[in-house]
């Protein structure tokens, strides 16, 4: 059904969610987006979330402490540890003890991950195109503005700081 917009009224909204139709839509969209992202990322040998770790590592000037990745990516220690272990087994990152703090671990992308970078960029482009298919540039800008506003609203309600670029 590429290029065609589904009729949003065809999606049954549970009675208890009728007071929150936007929240229900956000939930459905997030679930479908993650499902498609997972399908596309599997082709590159990744699971959803692993690409975000790699994106951050590629953008940094040097290796990162695992604890810093937890903070930046708003994860928890156990999830990040499993993610890094899987990325290490795949050969995309290397873990080494922090020379200044033996309790900490340093994570760095490997040379092998550079080929993955181009694949992740392609996957995110494909995901973006699938998500915004049929939208013109003005609609895309409006959607991004609305999503940014929703994110800021939720950040305020959860007590998290709003990013300066929001």
From TrEMBL:
Keywords: DNA-binding, Transcription, Transcription regulation
One Pfam match: MarR
Family matches, as InterPro entries: HTH_MarR-typ (IPR000835), MarR/SlyA-like (IPR039422), Tscrpt_reg_MarR-type_CS (IPR023187), WH-like_DNA-bd_sf (IPR036388), WH_DNA-bd_sf (IPR036390)
Coiled coil region boundaries: none
Domain HTH marR-type: 19-152
Bilayer-spanning residue ranges: none
Full protein name: DNA-binding MarR family transcriptional regulator
Example of a GO MF term: DNA binding
